[in-house]
Amino acid sequence: MSRTPTRAFHGERSNAYLSWLAIAVAGFVGAQALVDGRIHETLFAATVVIVAIVPVVALESTRAALPWEVTTVAVAALLVATIFPDLWRRQLVLYTGGAAIALALTLEVHALTEVRLERWFAVAVVTMVSASIAAVWAMVTWIRDLLAGTAILASNAELMWLLITATTAGLFAGVCFDLYYRHFPGDELVSAPVDGIDEDVFAIEADIDGRPPLEERLPVSGGLQRVLVQVLRLGMVAMAGYGAVTLDFGAVSNATAMLAVTFVPTLLRHRYDLPFDSGLVLWVTVVVFMHSIGSFYIYDRSFWWHNLTHPLSATLVGGVGYVAIRVLDEHREEIHLPPELTPGFIVIFVLSFGVFWEIGEFGFDVVAGITGLEMPLAQHGLDDTMSDILFNTIGAIVVARWGLPYLTDVTDAVTDRLDGWSPLES
Description:
Layout: H1 13-36, H2 39-59, H3 68-83, H4 87-112, H5 119-148, H6 156-181, H7 201-205, H8 214-217, H9 222-245, H10 249-262, H11 264-272, H12 278-298, H13 303-331, H14 342-371, H15 382-403, H16 408-417
C-alpha cells in the first residue's frame, strides 16, 4: 500500500511506540529542567511534547503520531543540550533543534488541515516557522531576565547568533521536508485534498466581505485624510531639505526613501487601478513619516517612539503578507491556506520577517566594524533588538486580528489584475 502523508500518522505500531518513548523522554528531561530552573530546556521540552501529541488529540488515537524520525531528532537536540555545561552551547543546540519542531508543525498542518504547500513554499514556511519559534523563545527568555534580574540572554551578539542558527537550521529542515515528500506519490504536497475551492472562499469563510473601507472608518473625512497625506509628505521633504543644507546625507537618504514609499499606493492606483482608498494611503504615510522623523530626530532622544513605530511597521508587513498569500492561493493550484489559518500565517510571516530584518542589521554592524563605513541600518544592543521583536509581534497580532478586512478590496483587485500572468500560472 502506498504511503501518504496522513498515513504517516497512522503507521505501524513501532512508529507510535518510538514516538511515545521520545515524548516520555522529553517530558522527563523537561520536568528536571523545570526543577533546576533551566528555562531553555523547559521551553524546548514543553514545545516538543505539545507538538507531538497534537495528532493524538486531533485524530483521537494513541497510534496517531509524527514520523518517529522527526520526534527523535527534536528530542536528540534536547539530550545533547544537557551534555554541555555552559549555557551558551546549550542554547545554541536547542535553537538549532527548534527547526525539527518547525518541521513537525508543518507536517501536522499538511496532514490535519486543508493546507496545500508547493514545494518551494513549504521550504519557506518551515524556515519562517523555525525563525518564529526562536523569536518566541527569545522573548520569553528576555522577559524572564527582566523580571528576575538574570542574564540568560547575555548579549545582543549571542542573541543574533541564536537567531541566525535557528533560521539556517530551519532552511535545512525545509529542504528535508521537500526531500521527505518526494517519496510520496503525486506531484503535489497535498495531504488533505480540497476539491473545487471557491475563489471567494477567503471573503466568505473569513467573514470579511461587506466591511466599510478604512476611509469610512476613520473619524475624519476623506478630503481631510488626503490633506493630511500631503502635509506629512511636505514634512518629509522638509527633513530631506534640512539634511541637504547641513550635509547630513543619512537624513537625506532616509527622508527621500520614506517619501517615495508614500507614493507607492498612488502609483499602483493609477497604474493598475488598485482600490487604495485615502484611509489606506494615510495609514502607509503615517507609518513611514513616523519612521522618518524618528530617524531624523526622536530615536536618539526617546525610547518610546521607537516602540511605537515598530508595531505600526509590522502592520504594513502583515498587510503585504496577506496580499501575497491571497495571490498565491488564487493563482497556484498547489497552494491553499484556509481562511481560519490566515491570521496565524500573518503572525508567523511578520515574526520571521522581523528576525530576518534583525539578522540583516546585525550583518550591517559586522560590515561596519570591519570596514569602518557608516551603514544605513544598525542595532543598539540587546534590549533594542528584543523590544523590536516584541513590538513587531504586537503589530502582527493587531493586523491579523482586526486589519485584514480593510485589505480585502486591494487583494481582490491584485488577484484579478494578475489573472493570466504567466509566472503565476501552473
